[in-house]
Write a structure and sequence with these properties.
Ammonium_transpt_CS, single chain, 457 residues, ammonium channel activity, globular, two-stranded antiparallel sheet, disordered N terminus, 15 helices, mainly alpha, Ammonium_transpt, Ammonium transporter fold
């Protein structure tokens, strides 16, 4: 069998390839995860429309380019060393809790995509997989998570950050922050339920060596949303306010773009959450229902807050509520009943609708409310499992232990991201963060890209 991973195809004997069928890989699961990977990748252009619509007319192209730029930089880096840092088999259970380099160019060969499995009673060295899905398919799926996490941060620095600096920051940040945190949570590291992790240190291990009370992050509450939201807060504070912030109105220039982006994000999020099950099974169906219920509840809750507070329920509020609900349910979608998912989503809608006003109170310019939505809803979704997780949460038959574990992993993620983002920011600072005030006033689309979104002449 030939398995082409680079320009020289690698010949793999048939008896070293994990077969499809009983005891091997599942064609149905594999097809679903390939589809889910495409859905998650589609979320980043959706985010570009969402952020682009929220921006002013003179900066919409730059805002959208920051998302597309993330797709380019992060995809290449993930193939070169991102997979190795996040999921290398040498790391899992091996005590490497930060996911540091093992074989940085893992996809140039098959050694990092192999494993030993028992087939017909014989331990066989095979080209392996994650569960019933080939490892290379899991690489594709996880690549898309890394892409959108970096793109999410861009909303906090809209209209004032140099495009080249953004690309450099994104490449360094995904390497030194996202990949290590991904390994800590999903790769058997510090924030996982593995022996030696924080949860095992606090509440001990079972007979198989796993934590008695394992952290829960089904699809990326810590790895994606707390991570991106905290990085966004650090950058917003370091970069400073936009010219005219607090004095001029920064209104969305294209609300239909905002709604289109929210619709694409909701659609793609089924790949994000449901795909994280790694199989097309009953739990995947529960995740789909929970994701929809929480998102709908968050949208309605946000609109209710707007109606009570401002007298109007807005379309931008509906779109923002959708995203808040999607964020909150991400870590919890596989461990709640549909009813508790509605509760989690509704609370997320209220919290985020109130939190977006904090930037005016505290004086930081989080341009497109990445902090108010992703950090706040991500924290709530992660901690909510301590209250509502089936058979583990405080209100559904469990004790306080799960709540403590969820709080601790959220806190560690916040501290790790804040410190590392600050370090990276000072590394990149000599290159210059911001465009000049004159360029900002003229419009970053024209000065950075020599383009305008709309030809009105």
């Amino acid at each position: 069998m030939v398995f082409g991973l680079h320009d020289v195809a690698l010949a793999i004997p048939d008896d070293q390839f994990l077969p499809f069928g009983e005891g091997g890989l599942s064609a149905g699961d594999t097809a679903w995860i390939i589809t889910a990977a495409a859905l998650v990748l589609f979320m980043t252009p959706g985010l570009a429309f969402f952020y682009g619509g929220l921006s002013r007319q003179k900066s919409v192209l730059n805002m959208m380019m920051m998302s597309f730029g993330s797709m380019g930089v992060v995809s290449v880096i993930y193939v070169l060393w991102g997979y190795s840092m996040s999921f290398s088999s040498a790391h899992v259970g091996g005590g490497n809790y930060l996911g540091l380099f093992d074989n940085p160019f893992a996809l140039f060969g098959v050694n990092q995509l192999t494993e030993t499995r028992e087939i017909d009673g014989v331990d066989t060295f095979v080209l392996g997989g994650f569960g019933t899905v080939p490892a290379i398919v899991w690489v594709a799926f996880q690549l898309t998570f890394a892409v959108i996490t970096v793109a999410l941060i861009s909303g906090a620095v809209a209209e004032r950050m140099k495009f080249g600096t953004w690309l450099l920051f994104g490449g360094i940040w995904v390497t030194l922050v996202y990949f290590p945190l991904s390994h800590m949570v999903w790769g058997g590291g510090l924030l996982s339920g593995a022996e030696g992790g924080i949860a095992a240190m606090m509440f001990g291990t079972d007979e198989e060596g796993g934590a008695n009370v394992a952290p829960i992050d089904f699809a990326g509450g810590t790895v994606v949303h707390i991570n991106a939201g905290m990085a966004a807060l650090v950058l917003a504070l370091l970069l400073g306010k936009r010219s005219g912030f607090g004095k001029s109105a920064f209104r969305p220039h294209n609300v239909p773009f905002v709604l289109l982006g929210a619709a694409i994000l909701w659609f793609g999020w089924f790949g994000f959450n449901v795909g994280s099950e790694g199989a097309a099974d009953v739990l995947a169906g529960l995740v789909w229902v929970n994701t929809t219920a929480a998102t709908a509840a968050a949208m309605l809750a946000w609109l209710l807050v707007e109606k009570i507070r401002d007298g109007h329920a807005t379309s931008v509020g509906a779109a923002s509520g959708i995203v808040a609900g999607l964020v909150a349910i991400t870590p919890a979608c596989g461990n709640l009943t549909p009813i508790w998912s509605i509760v989690v989503g509704a609370i997320a809608g209220v919290l985020s609708a109130l939190a977006i006003g904090l930037k005016y109170k505290f004086g930081y310019d989080d341009s497109l409310d990445v902090v108010g939505v992703h950090l706040v809803a991500g924290l709530w979704g992660t901690i909510s499992l301590g209250f509502f997780a089936t058979d583990a949460g405080l209100f559904v038959g469990g004790g306080f232990e799960q709540l403590v574990v969820q709080f601790v992993i959220a806190l560690v993620a916040v501290i790790f991201t804040a410190v590392m983002t600050l370090i990276i920011a000072f590394i990149v600072k000599p290159l210059g963060w911001r465009v000049s005030k004159e360029d900002e006033d003229t419009g970053i689309d024209e000065t950075e890209h020599a383009e305008t979104a709309y030809e009105l002449a």
